[in-house]
Write a structure and sequence with these properties.
Helices cover 72% and strands 0% of the residues. It has helices spanning 14-48, 57-65, 70-99, 103-119, 123-131, 136-156.
């Protein structure tokens, strides 16, 4: 077999596997931690910048007749990204649990956690970073990593080889 057609080993073993698993668990804990810690700040931000402040009195009465309050709107605004992050993290956890020795599966789990928890649902961690400016760099870094990982994932899916080859 020529060097050009030789396939690299797609599985991790030994120390590399242990290191990759530890990195994934640590990253997941950080992303989930930022989301959970950011919930009160995102809720407070949603209450203060509510859509209800921009409504006319007639529109406000219509919303109140439906039973919609600014607290409900704020809770909904916070709950949607958190639930989205939980779905992405649950899928990534299943992939990690079943196939963490496979490099592509591990990268897919990494992409799901970082994209779903930091890039797609960045409002909650951004609210945390707004309250604690020292967290701004890590929050933005995770957001950036999520966006980059999402793009790279579709270039290397399903076998880990870069496609299309001509774009190298």
């Amino acid at each position: 077999m020529s060097a050009r057609t030789a396939q690299p080993d797609a599985t991790l073993r030994g120390r590399w596997l242990l290191l990759a698993r530890a990195a994934w668990v640590t990253l997941t804990a950080i992303v989930v931690g930022f989301q959970v810690a950011g919930v009160p700040y995102a809720y407070a931000h949603a209450i203060t910048t509510s859509i209800f402040d921009r409504l006319t009195p007639e529109q406000l009465r219509a919303f109140e007749n439906l039973g919609l309050t600014s607290e409900f709107y704020a809770a909904y605004t916070v709950a949607v990204p958190v639930v989205t992050m939980l779905v992405f993290t649950a899928i990534a956890t299943v992939i990690f649990w079943r196939r963490s020795e496979d490099r592509m599966a591990l990268f897919g789990a990494f992409m799901l956690v970082v994209f779903g928890g930091a890039a797609l649902t960045s409002e909650t961690p951004q609210a945390l970073a707004g309250a604690h400016p020292t967290l701004l760099f890590p929050v933005r870094l995770l957001d950036y990593l999520g966006q980059v990982a999402f793009c790279i994932f579709f270039y290397v899916f399903p076998n880990g080889r870069f496609v299309p080859r001509w774009t190298r």
